[in-house]
Amino acid sequence: MRVSGPAGPPSLLSASVRPRTDRRQRLAAWGHAVVKRLRGLGLDVDGCDVDDSRAVFVPDGRLSLALDAGRVEVALELPRGDLVAPRARLEDAVRALELTAALEALPEQFTMGASAEARRDPAPQASSDGVRAMLDRADRLGCGLWLGWTLPREVAAAHAATLDEQLQDAVVALGEVLQLLSRAPEATPSTPRRGRRPEEARARKDDDREPDHRRAKAR
Question: What average pLDDT is seen over the chain?
Fold first, then answer.
């Protein structure tokens, strides 16, 4: 006779129709596992605040999961004050390419847009000009930038067996984009230094006059 092993924890969807304590415990357990992965990316995340239908990763607060009667959603929301860094990144061709490559790597279901408008564009198809246009719209509307994955509750229910893991992966994917969107790009190595002291300039000049065979030996 086969004896079944102990039942695993309820899925997020099944827990969402249980009593409040059960819902919060399940959300907290799910969020704790995600926190470990986000910290592994180097993000400023050390916990997960939960209520009856939402988990927010803190203290950063820009990554979240929402479960309600009609939808399941993971999202990255950059407030208006945080849009300076992505604008600066788009001004540098190499850093802009890093950003669009990160967006292109997202699953095709991910969308993005100004947080105050209903319009959402496919994130994997976003170009530098497209992201810049979104930032311009956000500026005109006085809002931030939204990036995430939203699926109807009935679609989520059809994939309940694997949904919890997929939602974890989705938050981590957004965390990887957050790393690029939340910090201004560093100066490239080719950026000239200002205020070089005279002795540094003379040393560089003397090195430039060093015979070719001596430079080759030094290498």
Answer: 83
